[in-house]
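Reminder: ligand-aware prediction takes two inputs, not one.
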Amino acid sequence: MSDTHEHAAGDSVPELKQRIQELEGMLHACRVRLPNAPAEAVRELAESEERFALAVRGTNDGIWDWDLKTDVVYFAPRFKQLLGHTDDEMKNLFSEFESRLHDEDRERILAALKAHVDQQVPYDVEYRLRRKDGVYRWFRARGSALRDGAGHPYRMAGSITDITDQKESIQALARSEERFSLAVRGTNDGIWDWDIRTGEVFFSPPWKSMIGYEDDELENVFATFDKLLHPEDHERVMATLNDYLESRIPRYSVEFRFKHKDGSWRWILARGRSLRDKSGKPYRMAGSHTDVTERKHDEEELHKARQAAEAANSAKSVFLANMSHEIRTPMNGVIGMSELLLGTTLDDSQREYLNMLKDSADSLLELLNDILDFSKIEAGKMDLDSHEFDLNTIVTETVQAMGIRAFQKRLVLLHHISPEVPARLLGDDGRLRQILINLVGNAIKFTHKGGVTVEVNVESGTADALMLHFKINDTGIGITPEMHESIFEAFTQAEASTTRRYGGTGLGLAICRDLVTLMQGRIWVESQLGVGSTFHFTAAFGRTSGISIKPLSPRFQPVMTAPASMRVLVVEDGHVNQLVSARMLEKRGHLVTLASSGQEAIDFFNSEPFDAILMDVQMPGMNGFEATAAIREIEKKSGEHVRIIAMTANAMKGDREDCLAAGMDDYIAKPLRSVELFQVLEKNSQRSMVQEPEQPFTRVEAAAIRPPVESVPFDLAAFRESAGDEKLMRKLIAIFPEDTQKYLKKAEKALAAGKAKPLYEAAHSLKGMLGVYAADKALRLASELSEYAHAGDLKGAQLMYDQLKKECAMLNGALMSAYDPGI
Ligand code: ADP
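Here is what comes back for the chain with adenosine-5'-diphosphate:
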């Protein structure tokens, strides 16, 4: 037998017994066939049989021994076992073998046996035999015939080996190889297989044709690959390969330029894997080459196109930024000039046109500012200018500035900064203010009743920085859920009709979003249509090293410009000042009660409650001091204290002290200016609400300092400012002649009678009313007249009176020509 195997260790006892039985069977057969053989020969034969048996014992082979003459075949028990039979289940006949042969194999096998027996063609075949359970198994059979002295075969013996598993794995391998080669051919990829130890590399034909070579044109060695690599890529590729082989990177995948036979460079993507020995050392590596030249070119094109697009976009944004900046300069000129023009004498239609011009210029400037910001952000030119600032100041000032608009719409505007927010922070306060103005401005714009609140809280913080959370809530028209995201896009408005009704560019929120992003925060909205909106944004700020808004007041702080409505008693005998003060206060939302004398004031005071009293000092009959003293006397019983604010045109020394001594709380100079009036009035009202430190007495003086304008009888702009609106101006002009005549007549009578006191009173009343008209020259003359009267110099007073009378006539003419009170 050619297949000699070592005796397999671990044979079980029953198996050994079986083999011994086999051996005895063989010996028996020998003795039967060689009955006359000498004992020595028999013994030798037995030994040789034993060797043979030992040799096959370790194998799984099944022995057969066929007597060609009788057709009796000895099938060893192992043979039968291989076919799933017990020893007694198969007869010792050739037909037993033949009947089990697969139909497809039978003819071929019988022919092979015949060829061996007749022509000594070696017998080494493969066939299928049916097992007892009906399943066919593959066997390899080898055997040889014994021949007599004449060369005639009389016996043939051999073995069968079950090769089914081997056959299946070969078939599986063939299938997988077939699959692999199909796949390789299908992909156009080139395959390489590198024996690291010898440096030999198998390069598949597609590997070579990818770079223009025939199979035999390139040598199968590593140097081939090395040589064709682009010099600029060489170092990188070798480093990647080394990193992979030395296990520094998990996979080998690298792109490089590879030289084509025609001299051009192709882009190759190489991928591969290594096989490693037990120590982890790679000994073989195989992989593929893919030509990615086209993809590379596409990528390059795309990259170039993107760069070009970005450059164009940035150029556009830079252009926009420059343009809007350039346009702003002349726009400022237009606005400045229209403001100056508005301060001159104009007729009604001129004024109307000019106001329209200025409104348009204002909104154009606003739009330009938005575009400038937006294009700056787009062009990547928007930088934050970080420095230390006071957050409370920023929020309070912003809210106060917006308060005028809120007030005009009768909306409540409140703000609250949490006490944890540090007083001083590092950040761009200008940009923060811009965001707040935008959001608070929108909230006011889209709200018709109710109010707006601004809240600031700490979201999170570290030792050097903190994230603040701002909330701007309104009770306005709200936003539909579909628009919650898109309103932050440039030029987007919640609905088309909104644009017409509310105006705006749709840029505000886009700018806010970008600024908030620059501040490492985010912005979003929660809103319900018809109920209101809350805009949230977060922004990061640095902490300052300095030690800190005292903490801020934990309550909502009422904004100066939009207080709750106050009940104000105005005590004033002059018709003009009654009109002016009542109009200003009512426009501001306060409830005004007018009293024309001290006595009337006391009567009102006794019958209804007031939050404050504005008290004219000089009044005929009971003056302001006396009325105040009387009110304080009444209060002694109740223990209450109403704020009384003196209003006087007196600028003489001692007035302040006199007011205080008479029990007044504050003081305001005539002519009244709305800003100062509200400050004094509402500051007092806030004292009880925010517990500010007591400021015993504040005199607002700004209004008193005004250089005389001799050339024109009155200053129209200042008059407009003190009146506050056109309607009141017309009314004041209409009552001017009657009121001045009344006081001038009184003065004339007093002069004629030589009485200084009524002369002083008349001059004082004139002084009080002329201030409202911003008639500086007349005011100065009235003031001097009152001083002459006070000093008892009736001669000097007469001179002044004459001048004043003339001036008042001129003033009347000027007022009439500036405004036609009849319209
Ligand atoms: P605009 O200049 O048009 O106000 P914004 O970007 O500031 O531009 O706002 C975009 C749109 O978002 C507005 O036109 C409006 O439709 C909606 N919007 C913004 N704020 C509010 C709000 N507080 N309430 C209701 N709608 C709002």
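Residues 408 and 662 are 36 Å apart (CA to CA). The longest helix spans residues 293-342. We will return to this case in the review session.
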